[in-house]
Amino acid sequence: MKIADALPQDASDILHDMAAAADLAGRALLEAASQRASLKVTQKTAGDFVSDADMAAEKLIFDYLLERYPGYGWLGEETGAVHGGSSSLRWIVDPLDGTTNFLRSLPHWAVSIALCDGDTPLAAIIYDPAKQELFSAERGHGAYLNGQTIRVSEDTTLDAALLATGLPAGGRITYLPHSLEDIAATMPLTAGLRRWGAASLDLAYVAAGRLDCYWERNLGPWDIAAGILLVQEAGGRVTPLWPDKDILTSGSFVASNGGLHDAIVAQLNKDHDFR
Ligand code: IPD
Ligand code: CA
Ligand code: CA
């Protein structure tokens, strides 16, 4: 797939640059995927892996974008924050979202790049090299999959709704009780749940109407900045799970097609006061 052809006609030059950076990282990751056995893998916390493929992909994206936009800030999952000059514009990047899937040869992982003004996403690229799917959005210009408009699902009744979430594991189980309660509350009312293992693609799938709702707690800003914009530009809704807590700060939110939002939010956090 020629990455430039997978963008909408009116894509800006900066979106083209973001897609080119994602393509560079995607090619390197596909190459690394063919040599998984030789990858150096460490655990940041129990069950949370990072490999030299993650690091190399992040460096490729950093070098490509900061060479072209030297005054912008940076926040990468693996390299942390680099403050821009006077600009409030910054890149928020997860070079490989779904590392565990990647390391286990599960073809469900993505490169996620967001251009933000502070915490407000302005442009988004989520690229799934294994499936050759490029999700893109620019604020006020809609959301796209391989250059074709995408929209959230039509209002489905709760009993037909397909949900997704992330399930805490290993060293990150602070919110495991909340997750188990969420599942107990929502499963009897809906058509089921998916736990795919790549938050950026969970959000992209809500935007594309493949899922009706996705929620998760305690994610990093790099997991969600691009996907939040995709859902919003596809006509969906994203609200904090922790009332009055900024989503990028808490990493806890509900994203949906809008029509089902309030009915599902009412089932989440029922027994917890997070104020
Ligand atoms: C992970 C994935 C997963 C989510 C985890 C994230 P990573 O990202 O998005 O779906 O549940 O909380 O850390 O670590 O593979 O970049
Ligand atoms: Ca991630
Ligand atoms: Ca990652």
Helices and strands in order, then pairings?
Layout: H1 13-33, E1 41-45, E2 48-51, H2 52-68, E3 73-76, E4 80-82, E5 89-97, H3 99-103, E6 110-117, E7 120-128, E8 133-138, E9 143-145, E10 148-149, E11 162-165, H4 176-186, E12 192-194, H5 199-207, E13 213-216, H6 221-233, E14 237-240, H7 247-250, E15 253-256, H8 261-265
Parallel strand pairs: 3-5, 11-12, 11-13
Antiparallel strand pairs: 1-2, 3-4, 5-6, 6-7, 7-8, 8-9, 9-10, 13-15, 14-15
Helix pairs in contact: 1-2, 5-6
The structure holds D-MYO-inositol-1-phosphate and calcium ion (2 copies).
**Helical amount:** 25-40%
What are the secondary-structure elements, in order, as H or E?
HEEHEEEHEEEEEEHEHEHEHEH
Bound molecules: D-MYO-inositol-1-phosphate, calcium ion
Structural class of the secondary elements? alpha+beta
- The beta-strand count equals 15
Beta percentage is 25-35%
Q: What kind of sheet is the major sheet?
A: 8 strands, mixed
Trace the largest sheet across and list its strands: 4-3-5-6-7-8-9-10
Q: Give the overall silhouette.
A: globular
Please compute the radius of gyration using only Cα atoms: 18 Å
Mean pLDDT: 95
Low-confidence stretches: none
Distance between the termini: 47 Å
Number of helices: 8
